[in-house]
Amino acid sequence: MKKILFIICLAIYPIVSWSESNTTLEIHLLTPDVIGEVVLDKDPSIKWIKKISDELENYLKSTNGNRDVLVSISLHKDREATIDIGARPKFDDNSIDELKKQIDKFKPSPRTKITDYNLAIYSKINSGCSKEMDFSPHIDNPLDKVFIRYKKLSLSEKKNYIQKWMREEIIPILAHYETTVDKKFQGVLSVGETLTSGAYLDSDIEQVTTHNSNYWRAVMEMSLGNQLIPFSKVSMHIAKGEFDKANRLLFVINNFSDKSSISAVLYPILGRKLKILKDSLNIEIQKGIAMHDKGEYKNALSHYENLLKIFPYSAWLNYEYFYSKTINIDNREKEWEKAKKIIYSSDPMYHIEIKAQNAKEGYLLFKRYEISSLFKKKEDFKKDFVKYAEIAFDLKDYGFAGELYWLILNYFPKEVYGDKDILAYYLYCLDKLGDKESIKNFDGDFAKRFKYIDKNRDERFKNSKEYNMFKVKGEL
């Protein structure tokens, strides 16, 4: 009587193994549990996987020699499972075909609810393969397959792909976690409803997030290490094509996410896709710069205009377009006043200001350039992070500054920021964004503390060497 140990629980991301005679099988669930428990019908999927593994075991026990066999399975929402089989040393082709035929008996395969689910069944016959060699036929990691296809897309196709992926696969997973919480978490439920309804697609993302008191309530309702809410904001920006804002916030929250949280699980995949997209766009922008440098201004402008149809919210692209457009005009500063509204709406922290008109602008120009000097050394991360928040605050990017101050307040010891009243700065940002509700959760004379913040900022302006370099008589 054969003895089988079969313990599988998709919610805890396990490796399952059992053995009979000289054949050992292991099931590796490659999709993390925080995704698996949302996208799979658990019981039917377990039964189907067990049928596949039993069939594989029955087939392999009659084979001879020492060999490893790998069966890679990807479950899909809209089609039959993709199944790849490889062996080392190589099976003869008839054996692979016969094994595939046996597995095909169990069609139809389970379907996922939202996005792909990946697993692999690893089998060792006798002592397994003793040599370091690839499986034959070669089997790509399912995620590698995705990136191979993604890299081959054109620039506009990459952009459309990542936006569709966000809208149709990632956001529904985030919304699931936000709409299934206890009713007392009204902020989280509100963000989940925004995602579920798709209201963000026809709205200014800042209006439905940082200018909305429910968003900040949601931020404060989450436990430490769970960055689900700001990650949802990142996702909304990506779905709208606002990649600059998404990248800034994604960098920030990744440093404060528990490894098992949804944001930490998705970050490597999302970050890699965003980098490939950004690198592809940067190559195209550099082509425009090369045209400009050769004096081919009309060609550069035409090139930028075509890119802007695809990436209207790229700060760098909008800047280069302005730069080529105004290269031969006298009143460039006047045109800059128009252009910077577009550039800074795309990325309020963008580092370029072409000219300071007064002392305060001179100070802020320096602050923008200072951003590029941050986060160079790991040991300076916390100090740089506090400085980053102060720069965002001085540039009046209160939404971003609020995110940073909340993280500082919860994750940094007081010695990092000294006497700075981080809570007051956080609530000051929310107040400037129109949130009059969050402050009610805290005790204190914040009107007085806000006045001190205004005074302190004014003093920092006026005492800085950058401010005094530009100072003009009579300026406040």
Quick description:
With 476 residues, this protein is of the alpha+beta class. The protein has helices spanning 33-39, 42-60, 93-103, 142-152, 155-179, 186-197, 205-208, 213-221, 228-239, 243-254, 262-293, 297-310, 315-325, 332-346, 359-370, 381-394, 398-411, 414-417, 422-432, 446-463, 465-470, and strands at residues 15-20, 23-29, 67-75, 82-88, 117-125. It folds into 3 domains: 10-127, Murine Class I Major Histocompatibility Complex, H2-DB, Chain A, domain 1; 153-182 and 224-320, no CATH class; 348-470, no CATH class.
Topology:
Layout: E1 15-20, E2 23-29, H1 33-39, H2 42-60, E3 67-75, E4 82-88, H3 93-103, E5 117-125, H4 142-152, H5 155-179, H6 186-197, H7 205-208, H8 213-221, H9 228-239, H10 243-254, H11 262-293, H12 297-310, H13 315-325, H14 332-346, H15 359-370, H16 381-394, H17 398-411, H18 414-417, H19 422-432, H20 446-463, H21 465-470
Antiparallel strand pairs: 1-2, 2-5, 3-4, 3-5
Helix-residue proportion: 55-70%
In total, the number of strands is 5
Distance between the termini: 90 Å
Q: Average pLDDT across residues?
A: 91
Strand order of the largest sheet: 1-2-5-3-4
Strand content: 5-15%
Spell the H/E element sequence: EEHHEEHEHHHHHHHHHHHHHHHHHH
Spatial extent as radius of gyration: 28 Å
Q: Please give the largest β-sheet.
A: 5 strands, antiparallel
- Oligomeric state of the chains? single chain
Structural class: alpha+beta
The total number of structural domains is 3
Treating each run of at least 4 consecutive H or I residues as one helix, how many helices? 21
Morphology:
globular
Uncertain spans, ≥5 residues at pLDDT below 50?
Answer: 1-21
